[in-house]
Design goal:
Distance between the termini: 10 Å
Number of helices: 4
Helix content: over 70%
Largest sheet: none
Strand content: under 5%
Length: 106
């Protein structure tokens, strides 16, 4: 169940990061409300995941995969460029997350 909570937390993290851009400095009401709700949802579900997972594993996977998802969706939604160095960095983050999951033995 902890991994499901962590997956949901990652989705909230991505929504928070992308929403922050949409708020235009928190000057737009509804994007700001959704961004704050996404942040709260992410922290809540991460905290639920961390009742079972080691904090080092859970937090690292949350931030790493949240970052990858944000960059990928940022390219789709905001037309940001994905360069070769970004792709190599994604691969390193994903490899690290998989290694952490395997090392956790959960």
């Amino acid at each position: 169940m902890a991994w499901i909570y962590l997956g949901v937390a990652i989705v909230f993290e991505i929504a928070f990061a992308l929403g922050t851009n949409a708020t235009k400095g928190f000057t737009k009401l509804w994007p700001s409300v959704l961004t704050v709700l996404a942040a709260a949802g992410g922290i809540f579900t991460l905290s639920r995941a961390l009742t079972t997972l080691d904090v080092g594993v859970g937090y690292t996977i949350w931030t790493g995969l949240g970052s990858v998802g944000t960059v990928v969706l940022g390219a789709v939604i905001y037309k940001e460029r994905i360069t070769l160095p970004k792709l190599l960095s994604f691969a390193a983050i994903i490899a690290g997350a998989v290694t952490l999951k395997l090392a956790a033995g959960v």
